[in-house]
């Protein structure tokens, strides 16, 4: 069944607004993106989630939706993302989010954007419990402090800690059950979490393990928790491979024209021509794929298909530049490149340094971070028979989670 997330980013955040210079907490910067984006990205990466509805404050809806549209265009979450306006209370915002869900959404996760550190494991546990047939699921943590009931300044009772749990989001529901719970409660019944509505309806609520890291940003001192999230890039590696056939001087004209050989943007004079739709730079094609691999950006054929006449004899450096722009938008910093050319002919060694310098310039790297190797296949196979040339590229770097 289709599982959607209602992401609540519609609160006023009055307890935090003064410390944050009047900025509502869901729009505070975290890892270079608004706070709500951290949760949105986590749900977008979950294979269980079909789509997300983001609920924004009514007064901020247009501006927030415009900003979100730019983020979606740059970061491509891979699932549909819708927006709607929130209401006066949290539960009103949830109802508006439910109303914005597509008809096929049978299951729903409700999550507070003020919990930006939700992870794949927690999302998966709630989703798995829903898939197992539970109609209301909440993540909980054991209470470690002693909890006392007080009236004014006086203790009334000490509550049994073993029977208490701290509740988190995302909370998962069968959509029909949650809608029925809202209808049963009526407009005057106010709650602080959605499971309370299901409890009020008399239906069971199942629990799964929460995570201590999934804290809620509530007080000014919590802002310090956002800084580490912005300073922990992940190491990434991208692999690229490409091959081009040499042109037969005696061949009849075909689909692919013959192009003078270039490697790393450097012309290789006296080398065989290569068959290619673009300029046929096998090394830059492999490098472009490796850059895209670092950010899960697909491959060169998808971004620049040879069926598009606009790319006829296009310089491969343009492809690389576009891939680098996409990678930068997705938080990539390249630190090192290792390249290998496999060919029986031409000899690469006379051109190796010029190729390396040119590639370093294209990547804006010092040449000490660009390695170039060349080898043959000892007369074997495609390259050994002098029918073509291959290239392999390995790119390493750091990527900030988007």
Can you describe this structure?
The chain has 402 residues and is of the alpha/beta class. It folds into 2 domains: 2-229, Spore Coat Polysaccharide Biosynthesis Protein SpsA, Chain A (Alpha-Beta Complex); 234-399, 60s Ribosomal Protein L30, Chain: A. The chain contains 13 helices and 20 strands. The chain has helices at 14-17, 35-45, 61-75, 90-100, 120-131, 175-185, 195-200, 226-229, 282-294, 300-303, 316-329, 352-363, 381-384, and strands at 2-8, 29-30, 33-34, 51-56, 81-85, 105-112, 136-142, 148-151, 154-158, 165-167, 171-174, 206-209, 234-245, 258-259, 262-263, 266-267, 274-275, 332-342, 370-375, 388-399. The strands form 6 sheets. Strands 1, 4, 5, 6, 7, 10, 11 and 12 form an 8-stranded mixed beta sheet that branches. Strands 13-20-18-19 form a 4-stranded mixed beta sheet. The protein has a two-stranded antiparallel sheet with strand order 2-3. α9 runs parallel beside α11 (316-329). The model has no long low-confidence stretch (mean pLDDT 91). It comes from Solidesulfovibrio aerotolerans.
Short description, anyone?
The chain is α/β, with parallel strands linked by helices.
Keywords:
402 residues, alpha/beta, Spore Coat Polysaccharide Biosynthesis Protein SpsA, Chain A, 60s Ribosomal Protein L30, Chain: A, 2 domains, 8-stranded mixed sheet, 4-stranded mixed sheet, 13 helices, elongated, Bifunctional enzyme IspD/IspF, metal ion binding, EC 4.6.1.12
């Amino acid at each position: 069944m289709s599982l959607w997330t209602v992401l609540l980013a519609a609160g006023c955040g009055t307890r935090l607004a003064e410390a944050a210079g009047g900025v509502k907490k869901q729009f505070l910067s975290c890892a270079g993106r608004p706070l709500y984006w951290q949760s949105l990205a986590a749900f977008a990466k979950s294979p269980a989630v079909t789509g997300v509805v983001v609920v924004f404050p009514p007064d901020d809806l247009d501006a927030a939706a415009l900003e979100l549209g730019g983020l979606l265009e740059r970061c491509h979450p891979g699932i549909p993302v819708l927006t709607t306006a929130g209401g006066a209370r949290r539960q009103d915002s949830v109802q508006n989010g439910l109303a914005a869900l597509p008809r096929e959404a049978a299951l729903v996760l409700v999550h507070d954007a003020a919990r930006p550190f939700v992870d794949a494991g927690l999302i998966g546990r709630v989703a798995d419990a829903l898939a197992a047939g539970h109609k209301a699921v909440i993540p909980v943590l054991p209470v470690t402090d002693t909890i006392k009931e007080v009236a004014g300044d006086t203790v009334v009772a000490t509550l049994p800690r073993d029977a208490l749990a701290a509740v988190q989001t995302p909370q998962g529901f069968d959509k029909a059950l949650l809608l029925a719970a809202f209808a049963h409660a009526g407009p005057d019944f106010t709650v602080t979490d959605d499971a309370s509505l299901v409890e009020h309806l008399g239906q069971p609520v199942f629990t799964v393990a929460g995570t201590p890291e999934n804290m809620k940003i509530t007080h000014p001192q919590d802002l310090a928790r956002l800084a580490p999230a912005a300073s922990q890039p992940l190491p990434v590696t991208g692999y690229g491979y490409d091959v081009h056939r040499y042109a037969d001087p005696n061949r009849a004209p075909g689909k692919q024209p013959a192009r003078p050989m270039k490697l790393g943007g450097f012309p290789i004079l006296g080398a065989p021509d290569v068959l290619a739709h673009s300029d046929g730079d096998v090394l830059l094609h492999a490098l472009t794929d490796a850059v895209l691999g670092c950010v899960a950006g697909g491959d060169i054929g998808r971004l620049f298909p040879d069926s598009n006449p606009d790319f006829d004899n296009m310089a491969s450096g343009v492809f690389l530049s576009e891939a680098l722009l996409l990678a930068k938008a997705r938080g990539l910093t390249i630190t090192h490149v290792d390249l290998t050319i496999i060919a029986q002919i031409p000899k690469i060694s006379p051109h190796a340094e010029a190729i390396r310098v040119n590639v370093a310039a294209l990547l804006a790297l010092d040449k000490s971070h660009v390695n170039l190797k060349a080898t043959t296949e000892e007369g074997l196979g495609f390259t050994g028979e002098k029918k073509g040339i291959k290239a392999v590229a390995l790119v390493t770097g750091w990527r900030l989670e988007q």
